[in-house]
Task: inverse folding
């Protein structure tokens, strides 16, 4: 750390010098313009941000299938605006994997395609992104998936189960976008300024979005089990519905706490959600006892469903913990 004394020039202008080593390392010369970003009681100084898009190039010669799809997703989350994929020859299988990746990511489109390379670009205007809206949308989709998955189990509805499984892609798409936004705020103060959300709050949203993504995954798993179960005894169905209601209430209460600006009210709701997590453990054991005497295969599948609902309550508890941290006073 280096310190500099603030001076007054011209009677009204405050000036402060910058460390020469930092200026040299960042190519700052006399006459250059710097960018200043106020952040609460701090002021971040950076070389003036360029409007040029960041570009990443990757040799995909030995990448196929899911490995290639995941690589494209990783580069997207890492923050590249333009992704150039090159090979001696990009074959049909690789092009399909690339298309799968672009369809799974918000704002990503193929803008150039030749025999030996594919260029993908993020066409979304970063100034129009809202991490708050993305997390709110994830909440709605994940919880509707969970409710429909339990309904599919209780009513033996395969078509509803299939619909739940398809909706998991929507939650994943939003999760990748939130991750991209969060990493951008860590890299540059400009991204945080455009987002209009403090970095700490963006971290809280990112942490909670991860829990919602897991809830959606368990809803999809429950829907997959529903397709294998067949008819479920009515008393078991009633127990599953009640367990679902408890788990969903925890998540909703925790999310309400996270999104509140009133710290006192947020703390009250978050603590309420945490208390209910303890109660759902007892409810889970009661449901397990009810399915124990069923057919072995049916009991196993129902046990997995009960576990998913129990984990959903735990994920809601994690969101409540994040809400408590967000609402807590910050050290000066």
Result:
């Amino acid at each position: 750390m280096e310190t500099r004394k603030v001076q007054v020039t011209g009677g009204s202008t405050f000036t402060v010098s910058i460390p020469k080593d930092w200026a040299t390392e960042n190519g700052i010369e006399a006459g250059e313009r710097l960018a200043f970003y106020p952040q609460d009681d701090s002021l971040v100084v950076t070389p003036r941000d360029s409007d040029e898009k960041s570009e990443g190039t990757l040799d995909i010669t030995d990448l196929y299938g899911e490995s290639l799809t995941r690589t494209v997703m990783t580069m997207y989350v890492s923050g590249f605006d333009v992704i150039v994929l090159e090979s001696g020859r990009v074959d049909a299988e690789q092009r399909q994997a690339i298309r799968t990746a672009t369809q799974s990511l918000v704002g990503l489109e193929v803008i150039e395609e030749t025999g030996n390379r594919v260029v993908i670009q993020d066409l979304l205007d970063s100034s129009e992104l809202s991490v708050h809206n993305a997390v709110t949308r994830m909440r709605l989709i994940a919880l509707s998936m969970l409710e429909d998955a339990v309904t599919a189990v209780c009513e033996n509805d395969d078509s509803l189960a299939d619909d739940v499984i398809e909706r998991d892609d929507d939650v994943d798409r939003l999760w990748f976008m939130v991750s991209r936004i969060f990493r951008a705020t860590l890299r540059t103060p400009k991204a945080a300024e455009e987002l209009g959300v403090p970095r700490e709050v963006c971290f809280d949203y990112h942490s909670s979005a991860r829990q919602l993504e897991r809830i959606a995954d368990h809803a999809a798993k429950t829907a997959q089990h529903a397709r294998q179960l067949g008819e479920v005894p009515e008393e078991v169905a009633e127990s599953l519905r009640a367990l679902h209601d408890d788990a969903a209430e925890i998540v909703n209460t925790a999310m309400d706490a996270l999104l509140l600006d009133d710290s006192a009210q947020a703390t009250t709701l978050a603590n309420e959600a945490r208390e209910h997590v303890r109660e759902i453990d007892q409810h889970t054991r009661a449901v397990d006892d009810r399915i124990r005497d069923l057919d072995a295969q049916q009991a196993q599948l129902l046990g997995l469903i009960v576990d998913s609902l129990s984990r959903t309550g735990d994920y809601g508890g994690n969101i409540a913990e994040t809400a408590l941290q967000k609402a807590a006073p910050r050290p000066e």
Q: What stands out?
A: The longest strand covers residues 34-39. The radius of gyration is 25 Å.
